Amino acid sequence: MATASTPASTITWKLDPAHSRAEFKVKHLMISHVKGTFSGLSGTLIEDPSDPVRSGVEASIDIGSINTGDPQRDAHLKSADFFHHEQHPSMTFKSTRVEKKGDGEYLVTGDLTIHGVTKQETFAVEGPSAPTKDPWGNTRIGLSATAKINRRDFGLNWNAALEAGGFMVGEDVHITLDAEFIRA
């Protein structure tokens, strides 16, 4: 993450929560995926356009903003069986390394904290896009990021065995982030 000693060439971007989305999907009954979103996103991107691998990001997601389209399931996910929202109201990510993989493609590794457990995870990132002026005079960029994590690594262990074998909820969680940032 950029610090006060980084070159003046860095640009600070603030995440625009109205135009950003975090989505996830996880196997249900071992036959299909249940998808959900989080809308309570915040974050900062410090970009070094002359050397993108020196860029960094910090982000937070409000667990209470979870939406799977089923209020009963959302309440269960917020409960102590899963996220324990009362005790762990947010999940966070702070980058520690950025690697260039191709033109506009990066691997961003950092500390992901969910349910009070911090693990190093890597997101594949497309972008950022070229800066664009919006109709209100703001400069914006966008990017997309994906990762696959194991929920049990973060202490999200609840499950139920199925009569036919297997479990109700899969362990792998696929994450997709679409983020728009405004120049600070």
Q: What's the helical proportion of residues?
A: under 10%
Largest sheet composition: 8 strands, antiparallel, barrel
What is the CATH-assigned architecture? Beta Barrel
Helical stretch tally: 1
Low-confidence region ranges: 1-5
Strand order of the largest sheet: 1-4-5-7-8-9-11-12
As a percent range, the share of strand residues is over 45%
Shape by Cα distribution: globular
User: Mean pLDDT, rounded to whole units?
Assistant: 88
* Tally of individual domains: 1
User: Tally of extended strands?
Assistant: 12
Instruction: Output the helix-strand order.
Output: EEEEEEHEEEEEE
Specify the structural class: mainly beta
Distance between the termini: 16 Å
Q: Could you tell me the CATH topology label.
A: Lipocalin
Any idea what the radius of gyration is? Answer: 18 Å
